[in-house]
Each structure stands twice: as structure tokens, then as C-alpha cells.
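name: query_chain
kind: protein
chains: 1
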Amino acid sequence: MIAADLHVHTTNSDGTMPLERVPRVARRAGIDAVAITDHDRLHPDLDRPVTSRDGIALVHGIELRVDAGDQRLDLLGYGARRTDALVEECDRIQQNRKERGAEIIDRVEDRLGVSLPVEPRPGLGRPHIARAIAEVSDYDVQGAFDDLIGDDCACYVAREVPSFEHGRDLLAGACDIVGLAHPLRYDDPAAALARCETLDTVERAYPYEGSVDLSPVNRAIEQYDLLATGGSDAHGDRLGLAGLAGDEWSRIRERLDVSAE
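structure:
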């Protein structure tokens, strides 16, 4: 039984569900806690590390893309507060997202000879552009990624992201817990898991496609004395595809500042 889904995106980044709808959807899924982990962005309507809304604990979090040198990784911060350093970096990243989005849109429009119904803005991600492509072409969202805007495709433009060390330090200064997201999704999972040496957690429960061997994750948890987190990486309104059982959530909750919940 899943009690906590600690990896959820809202319309503040590239999700389709507004924050105010999250408690209702969580109750429908039988979940007690949700972490809002929008990409490279704190949520403007969450002003505490943990907030209770309609009986659901909402953890203020963030998912931050970082450059580890050999590959790019995603870090998850839980129990977030607005520090000047993190806010400044998020603002810089969002400006880059706007500029990068404009370039991707221009490339797609030139290639397909269409006008996309999407504008460059802070918070813009490739899923927004993929959905716009699907509205005005024969591509569906996955096809847009596969053929146009996915990594190494003709219309792809890389983002400017902080280094692993800088991103980790920013999150450590602003969040109660910092961990590695979906470790088995990277090109080199072993190298990604080695980075957990300086982190608090790793995401063990995740809706990977097909069967996966979690033993490397379990070894990292034991080797680095990590807490296990988990979540569905929801970009829509299906919560609880992966997450933590009640006892696992209790261990995470003990590390969060819930004094103002």
C-alpha cells in the first residue's frame, strides 16, 4: 500500500495538474503525502517545507538537473525553503529555459512549416512543445520526442545546467533532504549511484518500464547509508504508480521540518 508519492510535477513546470487539484487526486488514490518536485523551480504557492491541505501532506520539493561531467543527473530536494542562492539559480535556469524553448520552437516551425501554439516562457519544457507539435501536425507527443526534439534530434537544444557539486550544495542549503532521482534511467547507472556518496537519499521506487534489477540501488543504500525515496514522476493526474509504504514514509517524514504543517 503506497502512502506517499514523492515525485510529482504540476503546471508550475511541465505537469498538467494544478497544485490545488493535488489533494483531491491524492485522496482518490489513497495517498497520504505528495512531494511537489517541479523541474528547476520552487512552487510559488508553497511557503513551508511541509504543508497540510485537505488532510494531505504536501512536501515542497524541487527536481534539479545537474551536470556530473560524464552525464546529466536529476537531484530531488525535499522540504524546500527559498534561499537567495537557490532562487537566484532557479531564475537563471528559467531564463535559459525560455531562450532554449524559443530556439527549439523556431527549429520545429522551420522544419515542419507550421506555427506552434506555444510561447517561450519560464517553466517551459519539452513536453509543452511536444504537446503543441501534436496539436498541429501528424506527430503524437512521443513521436515528437522520437523524431524532432529528443536528445540528439534535429530540433534539440541542450540546456545550461549547474554542476553536480553546485546543484547539490544549493539544495543542501535549502532542503531538509537531497537525493538522486530514478538512478536506473541514466546511461551509466553505476556512475550515477556512486554520486550518492554525498547525498541523503536515492529514489528506489519508480515506475520503470519493464522489469528492472534494483540490486544496485539496494547496494548503494547500504553502502552510503541512504534513505529510500520513491514516486511516480507524475506529469498528469495519476498518482501512486510508485511510492513509499507507510513505514518508509515515516522515516522520510522524521527528517522533514513539519513544525509548521
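note: The chain is about 35% helix and 15% strand.
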